[in-house]
Design a protein that fits this description.
398 residues; alpha/beta; TIM Barrel; eight-stranded parallel sheet; two-stranded antiparallel ribbon; 15 helices; 10 strands; globular; binds flavin mononucleotide
Amino acid sequence: MSQALRSVAEARRRARRVLPRVVYDYIDGGADDEVTMGENEQAFRRLAFRPRVAVDTGEPSLATRVLGTEVSMPLLLAPCGLVRLMHPDGAAGAGRAAHSRGTLWVLSSVAGVTLETVADVPGHKWFQLYASGGRPEAASIMERAAVAGYEALVVTVDTPALGNRERDARNGVTSPLRLDARTAIALGPQVLARPRWALRMMRDGVSTMGRPAGSDEAGGGGTQPGSGMGAAGAVAMLASPFTWSDIAWMRQRWPKPLLVKGVLTGEDGRRAADAGADAVIVSNHGGRQLDGAPATIRVLPEVVEAVGGRIEVLLDGGVRRGGDVVKALALGARAVLVGRPYLYALAVNGQTGVEQVLDVLRTEMSRSLRLLGCASVAELDPSYVEGSSRAGAFENRS
Ligand SMILES: Cc1cc2nc3c(=O)[nH]c(=O)nc-3n(C[C@H](O)[C@H](O)[C@H](O)COP(=O)(O)O)c2cc1C
C-alpha cells in the first residue's frame, strides 16, 4: 500500500503517474477548451471568506441531513462512468468508502457494472439515470433500481447530446468512449507504460467493464447502447434527452426522493420544483458538457433564491478543498458532491484511496469552520463569504 493521500491535488498528480494517458485524460478532461471546467475551480478560489475571529467553536459539527438521510458530513460521491477503469475496486469500492466514512454515493448508469451487482454494498446509495431509449427504458431501469434498494433517483438533464471531449479524440478514442480490442491495440504503448495498472486490469478481467448499470446481467439490455457489444465493449456516457414532462412522469412512478442534476439557472430550479423534484444538483457536469456554462458556485445563489426553500439544493463541480464545501454551504447548498477528487484517489489506492481523500476533505472542512469562527455547518450563511448580494442582510445579525 502506498503512502496516504494528503490533498486532492496530490491525488491528481499521483493518478497521472498511475494511469495510462487515455484513462487519466478521460477523468481529467472537459469539453471544448475546458473553460467551464477551469472556471469551476477558479470561482471557488476567487470567493473569499468573511471570518469571525475570537470565537470558540469547539470541534465543529459537520453532520447534516440530505433529503432525510443523515450523513456524517455534507460531502457525497457524484455519479461517474467507467469507474472500473480507474481501479478494480470500482464503484463498489467507492461505495464502501462512502459508507465507511458515514456518507453516501451515487451509482452512474454507465459505471461499468449492473445496478444489481453493487446493490449489496452496505449503506445509503442513490442511482443516477440516463436512458437513451426513452420512457420504456427509463421505466424498466427505475423499477429495477427500486427493487435493488436504491434510495433516491438522480436524473441527469444536461446530456441531450454528448460534450466534445477533445482529449479523448486526441487519444484516438471514439465518442462515446469504447474500449474494444482495436482501441486496446492502438493504445498499446500507453498501456505498457503503466504496467501496474495493466496487470490489475488483466487480473480483474476488462471484459466486465462495459456493461451499463441499467443493462441486464447478460448485457442484453435491448435498446441500450453498449448492450450486445460483446465482452469488450464500453460506453462512457449516453446522450439522454430528458424533458420536464419526463421528470413529471418519473415523479409519478418513483415514490422515493428524486433529484434533477444539471440545473444552472433559477428558472430551471423552479421548473424542477414544479415538476415534483425533491432537490436539484447545480452542476455543469464538471465542465464536460456545455463549455461556456457558468461556474456552479457562481450560479448557486440564484438557484437557491429561486427555489425559495421548496426543495433542497446541492452542488458539484470544482470542489477541491474542504473550504470549497464550506463556501457552497454558506451560499445555500445542502451538500456538495465530488467527482474527479475521488476518481483520482481510487486510481491511486482503490477503496482506501477514496477513504483517504474523504478524510482529507473532512479535516479541511473542520479546520476551515474553526478558522471561520463557525461551530457547525448548520450555522453557515452568506455572511461568511464576501461579495454575495445576500451577505449584507446578515451582517448585523451577530
Ligand atoms: C470521469 C467522469 C465520469 C462522469 N460520468 C458521469 C455520469 O455517468 N453521469 C453523470 O450524471 N455525471 C457524470 N459525471 C459528472 C459528475 O457526476 C459530476 O457532475 C462532476 O464530476 C463534478 O465535477 P468535479 O469532477 O469537478 O467534482 C462524470 C464526471 C467524470 C469526471
